[in-house]
Design a protein that fits this description.
119 residues; alpha+beta; 5-stranded mixed beta sheet; 5 strands; 40% helix
């Protein structure tokens, strides 16, 4: 499980003074700008991961962010009840096989799929 990065972040700790809705709109705009960098297969892979995460964490908010260097599926906040499920443990055990990187930030998980650069 060398692909897990843990960031200890308090829920109240914010990197920006922007309201949450402004940050959300900004992220949607960045995703729209970066979408042409990926082919349909890569976008489908990100959407499949989003669907899988939503199935495992049905009570959590989850969304796909398209970044310049990777696709990120963020889910959270994850409750203690969801952390003790067999699906959560299985997902963490399969990180090295299925995901390029997983970031644990506070009560959220961010699954990253690195961009496959065409040569």
């Amino acid at each position: 499980m060398g692909n897990i990065k843990v960031h200890n972040v308090d829920d109240d700790d914010s990197k920006t003074a922007q309201p949450a809705w402004v940050a959300f709109e900004d992220e949607k705009e960045k995703s729209k700008e970066n979408k042409p960098l990926y082919n349909d297969e890569e976008i489908s892979e990100g959407e499949a991961l989003l669907s899988k995460v939503q199935g495992i964490f049905p009570m959590c908010k989850a969304h796909l962010n398209i970044r310049q260097k990777f696709l990120a599926v963020k889910v959270g906040p994850i409750t203690i009840r969801e952390r003790i499920t067999p699906q959560y443990k299985e997902m963490l055990n399969n990180i090295d096989k299925e995901y390029d990187e997983v970031v644990i930030r506070g009560k959220s998980l961010i699954f990253r799929i690195k961009r496959k650069v065409a040569v």
